[in-house]
């Protein structure tokens, strides 16, 4: 289904996460790929686009990010709920076949040596801005978005199009445990 | 309607913002109150609960936060859409009657010298953790949540209850300009 994946202009990349979805974080180092879920990810700047993500010290993905200086933030959909909870609840350290176990397939994007998770709604390829204080004291990682893509069925012309597609495309917004909300109705202010 | 406002245990406070709502930031210093909207706010830690929020240098609210070391993050609802867009689009510096103009009423919480915005779904009273590098380089402010409250009609027993109340209670999730989504259906994983 890669024919629907289209680049997103960097000055619009913040729109992929400003509505606060739970994301998947993926990284690669020395031949090892890992994917985790993160509810605490947030846009930080418009241009160049930057974002923050909280990565616990216990996660294998964090170690890959620190070693490679690269990661992908991707926006999963309601159709991927069990995958999100699975990769968010288990560590590659304890479950070497974690990705296969939870049905995670990845694909490549030319020029980016990173694992991109199939079936997501959007992907942001990031370069780690190394900030030892934030990483050590707050588990807070800052990335500059170097390239972004979205599935044109659900995000195009700089806007989400949830109202036009099957509810399975809705983004996930975590509360706690296995409890999430899907994103809902579009609302617009006339102010 | 304050009879519905109830404290939220600090170890559950992260649940008020983990689903990624746009928030209102309020602060007070030297007799001046201000309120702004912020789409880029995010939980940072569980216990003690901490959060991040991006505050542009052009905002008057930021100056009040820096001067007082205190602020409130509150979670507005769909019923407050025009208020959110109004306070998010105009500065107190240019519009001295900004709060009245957009229908913002505030109330007090004993022990907290801060303006709390009426009609929101939840409130988190924060102490600024002074981090000059993050504030200057990234416009990124870190707060420790010292107390939290929610309207028990929409958040109780540590969980959002959007499915039980009028859609006007749904939280707002910004995309860009005047475009938002309301939070949608509850989804739960059986993983």
UniProtKB/TrEMBL annotation, chains A, B:
Stored PANTHER family: FLAVOREDOXIN, FLAVOREDOXIN-RELATED-RELATED
UniProt protein name: Flavin reductase
Domain Flavin reductase like: 15-162
Pfam families: Flavin_Reduct
Keyword Flavoprotein (UniProt): yes
Keywords: Flavoprotein
Family, similarity comment: Belongs to the flavoredoxin family.
UniProt-listed InterPro entries: Flavin_Rdtase-like_dom, Flavoredoxin, Split_barrel_FMN-bd
